[in-house]
Known about the structure:
Elements: H1 2-13, E1 20-21, H2 23-36, H3 39-42, E2 46-57, E3 60-61, E4 65-72, E5 76-83, E6 86-93, E7 96-101, E8 106-109, H4 112-123, H5 126-130, E9 140-148, E10 154-161, E11 167-173, E12 179-189, E13 196-211, E14 214-224, E15 227-239
Parallel strand pairs: 1-9
Antiparallel strand pairs: 2-3, 2-4, 2-15, 4-5, 5-6, 6-7, 7-8, 9-10, 10-11, 11-12, 12-13, 13-14, 14-15
Amino acid sequence: MVFLLILSLLFVQTPSPSVSVDEKSQQIIDRAIATLGGPKYLGVQTVIGKGFFTAFKDGMTQLPARFLDYIQYPDHERTEFVGGGIRTIQTNTGDTGWVFDGGPKKISDQTPAQVEEFKRGIRTGLEYLLRGYWKKEGGKITYVGRREAGLAKRNDAIRLTFPDGYWVEYEFGAKDNLPSKIIYKRQRKDPDSGDMVETTEEDQFFKFIEMDGVTSAWVIDHFINGKQASRINYESVQYNQRFADDLFTKPANIKAIK
């Protein structure tokens, strides 16, 4: 009993991460959640999305690849790509991940850099903000102000700052409350010099569609330093569908891949 009492006192005295959000930012977040479906949106645990992924190079579209994406919140994702007759699978589960390359027909563990890239994608994503995952890291949200966003349109911008100084900005339509943009910086290797350089990256959301009481963007454009780098175009989205138990498990061999 004494041992348990000491443990409970230590637990109570251990400070939790300091999180904060100003009143204006909280109102913007609450309105966005309500617009996207409220309790139904927050109740989504899994998503299955199908569509096309298109890369851009020097402003020109490349050949699109068909994708099938499985998401289980907060940190499980499996994405299958088919392009040029070759199937590729990228799967992440928290701090681990594996890749199947259909060209050489090879299964391999993801590199630390690939895992970190996945985790960065989660950290800068819309769900990370609206579902409150940022609170576990002790983040702070502040209202930035209103920005012009096209003809007769303005966005409300809020900034999420983490204790390590990293920040992500989110913009929501001032009138429709829909997510409009996500802006952040990151380090990338310059393809010409090979040096690591800081880039400004931006996701823009379009074509909002409601399915089963949940609204989401079916077109997502990604920009690097103001130039479009890719487009995700969904053809279908399903919520809260059950997955096979081994969907995220690394196969023992090529024949075990489903």
